[in-house]
Amino acid sequence: MAENSNLEIVSASSDHVEWIISMARKEGWNPGDNDAIAFQQADPSGYFIGLINGKPVCCVAGVKFNHIAIIGYYVVVKEHRGQGHGIRIFQHAMNYLNGYNVRVDGLLIHAPKYQNSGFKMAHVNVRYTGAVDNSTISCPFVCAASSVPFDKILQYDARFYADERKHFLAGWINTGTTDCLAYMDKDTVKGFGAIRKSVNGYRVGPLYAETTQIAEILLKSLCQHKSDCRITLDFPETNNHGKALAEKLKLVEVFKFGTLYTGEAPNVDLLKIYSFTCH
Ligand SMILES: CC(C)(COP(=O)(O)OP(=O)(O)OC[C@H]1O[C@@H](n2cnc3c(N)ncnc32)[C@H](O)[C@@H]1OP(=O)(O)O)[C@@H](O)C(=O)NCCC(=O)NCCS
Predict the structure, then answer these.
(1) Which residues contact 105 (CB under 8 A, 6 or more apart)?
(2) What is the pLDDT of residues 42-93, one digit of tens each?
(3) pLDDT for position 39
(4) 127-275: what fold?
(5) What is the per-residue pLDDT across 89-119, written as a single tens digit (0 to 9) for each?
(6) Residues spanned by CATH 3.40.630.30 within the chain?
(7) Is 116's C-beta closer than 6 angstroms to any atom of ligand 1?
(8) Which CATH class is domain 4-103?
(9) Closest C-alpha residue for ligand 1 atom 9
(10) Which of 3, 163, 166, 271 has most Cβ atoms within 10 angstroms of its Cβ?
(11) From the CB of 202, is ligand 1 less than 6 Å away?
């Protein structure tokens, strides 16, 4: 505990954000190359780093949207674990998020910790990965999300996230490292999907669709022309349509994880979520 008292918690600089991404990579979470940067754009004050003698030893992100916030990138350097740094930086982020309904997507082994911190399990999710056909696909209903009025995308995303993620989505659509597509039926959004490069292949998220067929068209459109198109999908395990699509594409289940909230779990249609945007 002596070391814990030396821990100095500061807001992360852009150099620190690189370090945070490297920590997530070491944990095998396969983050998108620029995910942390996009989340930080959504809430520039929401990244924290713990230093001992000026050297980073732990980190956490607490990103505020409108009334929902998320905790992510919660990691302590291996040699410094078990000395109270984790809980200290976690509580620092939770204080910052005071008043928000805080969401965490965490490994099931950590769920009891989060439950001790006041979170309640909303749903269990599955991660699937595998290589997807990257051949050309043409569908007249699919277009760049950037060509759709932004408010429509914002509202469609809010249907599945139960919050408006204005700055986050603006960053996600316009980072240049993320491909975002929409499936439009005249002026109505019937699906929305994004893909970004990650350590191993590509992360897909979000991917929302009114039908499994739309989800498949969007997914294949996102994957076309990508070399070595190994993808990762994360969706609620109750979404049997997602499971059927993943199995049709011969993806394999890697692990399960939980989504927990400090407040009420939002009432969203989990059966239309084919992948989340999680860390
Ligand atoms: C999880 C992790 C961040 C915890 O950090 P740590 O510094 O080792 O944890 P601490 O020393 O602060 O833990 C002190 C106590 O608080 C508990 N604790 C830690 N984080 C907590 C949290 N967020 N909420 C409630 N309790 C927590 C610990 O279980 C421990 O309890 P115990 O003494 O009864 O065993 C660290 O083990 C780690 O980096 N793991 C790998 C990355 C990872 O899995 N992150 C979580 C992703 S879901």
Answers:
(1) 70, 72, 125, 234, 257, 258, 259, 276, 278, 279
(2) 898 999 999 999 999 999 999 999 999 999 999 999 999 999 999 999 999 9
(3) 81
(4) Aminopeptidase (3.40.630)
(5) 999 999 999 999 999 999 999 999 999 999 9
(6) 4-103
(7) yes
(8) alpha beta
(9) 86
(10) 163
(11) no
